[in-house]
Here is the input.
Amino acid sequence: MKGEILATGDEIRSGALIDSNSAYIAERLEREGVEVVRHHCVGDDLGSLTDVFQEIARRADIALVTGGLGPTSDDRTTEAAARAAGVGLVLNADALTAIEMFFERLGRTLPPSNRKQAFFPDGSEILPNPIGTAPGFKIQIETCTFFCLPGVPVEMRKMLASEVIPRLLSLSGGHRQISMVRTLSTFGATESMVGEQLSDIIADFPDIQIGYRAKFPEIQVRLYIRGDDAAEMVNHLDTVAHRVTGRLGDRVFSSDNRSMAATVGDLLADGKATLAVAESCTGGLISHWLTNTAGSSRYFLFSGVTYANAAKMDVLGVSETTLASHGAVSPETVREMAAGARRVAHATYAIATSGIAGPDGGSDEKPVGTVCVGLAGPDGVTSRQFYFPYGNRRAKKKLFAMAALDTLRRHILGMEALDVGMKKITSP
Amino acid sequence: MKGEILATGDEIRSGALIDSNSAYIAERLEREGVEVVRHHCVGDDLGSLTDVFQEIARRADIALVTGGLGPTSDDRTTEAAARAAGVGLVLNADALTAIEMFFERLGRTLPPSNRKQAFFPDGSEILPNPIGTAPGFKIQIETCTFFCLPGVPVEMRKMLASEVIPRLLSLSGGHRQISMVRTLSTFGATESMVGEQLSDIIADFPDIQIGYRAKFPEIQVRLYIRGDDAAEMVNHLDTVAHRVTGRLGDRVFSSDNRSMAATVGDLLADGKATLAVAESCTGGLISHWLTNTAGSSRYFLFSGVTYANAAKMDVLGVSETTLASHGAVSPETVREMAAGARRVAHATYAIATSGIAGPDGGSDEKPVGTVCVGLAGPDGVTSRQFYFPYGNRRAKKKLFAMAALDTLRRHILGMEALDVGMKKITSP
Here is the structure.
């Protein structure tokens, strides 16, 4: 069953509003076995709207349309659907009663403009809106079934679940395929490196579609499968994921769409270990990522964001001599930062970052993009230096924070340190 | 000049990724006088891609295409453009050299798959990519000029500005209307509250189009104008922005699209003041926001992300008695946290947060969504309590961080504390 999605409205067309509805709808429909082929967006222009309805009607089996059902003059979806279907608009008495009751519950009388929302294309089926004034409708145009829903995300989502999804099974003639996706998250290789390493594996599994997604600074490998036997599909995804992970090795940090911070958090929680952080160049981002996970207070104790050198000394006990002789961005300093954070917070582990996120502050010896990562644990203190010569200040903060968390992940798992995709300078 | 936008890739088609590129492009093109008529999205399917290229070519004057220029087998945009134009692919030696140099700068040899990125439709013009491996290209198909750019947002934005916009003037035959936008950023009122407060002002200025954009937790009011006299347009925008700011009052924190953190940073830098932060529930987000601004080391000294109570005592000197008798989420604790951070870092000001971001940890007395904000400065220590009963854990962290920064902004500017849109409990 082929599906298309149409978002309407000048706010989306002109870019004042990002369309998040279409992605939500696409994911839900695909999960139900609909093959989403195209998305469209047009503004509140009756001619363009009617054209798109007619184009979609010629190609798709079902279509989801959002927006343009409101009471104002720029809401034209209902009229466009009627024109495309070659029918007139008729008043629906039940819909009018429902709208009147909605306003009664709010203790207000029905504004005249809202009466417009009770008119529908002749022959369409009304889809009730439990939480707003705009009902939706279902209309057949040529061989395509259109579902027109409000553009307000919370209303659209409720009606998609309660009105659209249950009708899909009968539309598909009782038989439909399901689809599944498996996400492998990697750090430390570029998209093209990952793609090349997997090209022969993918050739071995023609029933698996592969997608690469740069969720910077992660590269995600997504394996898609479509079929009708869920258990068999899970087994098959397991097999392929195993081959992929075997090839990419320890660059794969999650196979269930967990973030790097949540992955490290799981490792800490499993080992009943705790973590302290000392952040200079990452400026709080490591702590922010860690605390985005509910339950992170089980293992995350403290981060000292010591932007100023005085704070590095006063809070973490970094020695003035070290700062003076080696500089803030040095293996020596991050080792003292990590040791200091671990000591202050009485933590099992501590990681520390000091680097140059730019745009200023670089030198020939330590260019913008250089970061030193310190790691303190029960077995002592180590450090590594990385160099990321791409991206702006915010991108570099993310790369630095990922490198620090990945250094801890690899240490806990007994893996080699990361040395791909960047220049590594082993500290003296 | 009519424009259309095409986003490509299975990730967007299937809903795995929300397409933010198209809204960005639409806004930029409209500002340059292009009338954006439609957006499209199709996946990595050569047939569908070629069809859409041909459809757009029949309707539009210019088209912007994003994605599908990468090195992997699912990147098909170049091939589709060539097919739609009825030409072959040819190797561009300059582009190959540029890609080779990109890898050389990274200290790596060119992977064979990246060679693919140096092939372009015969007769197209190469658009250099200053920060990535995928160059774009410009190609004429029927009467439409297509600009094909990478899908990575930061690369797309750079190339849109440096390669596409400058070519628009010659395409439009030398004459075009310009459009301008003024952005007023607000915190502390909902979108519908802002909309209602401005409805009569907007009615007074029919030549101004207004848009509301929830850039959570900010609400942005955007004023659009189109014309051909830039100086007159700026004056007119000044007048309307003045009326809007007069109505919304001190909830407007920026009229030049600066973030709350950058706005507070500017105030600190102007007053040669420095800042320390003590974060519990915000988990590093305040520091992360502050350090996203280049030059923040002029005023930002230190943040103690004291997630554990022990860290609040050991690092910030919060007393055990205070924690035991009032709890971590209390006006008393955040006042001691703020005072401690200010003292440790020798800063002019300090702000502190302690609250319940959820999903667990709430109580009847202090439900999830409660946050206490402490403020220490040369004139002493104060605190406020807010309650944000909406959004998930990440949304609440953002609301809490904004409330804390806004508390400092209002203090420095001598404004009343925020008391709209949330329950405020004045501390004893």
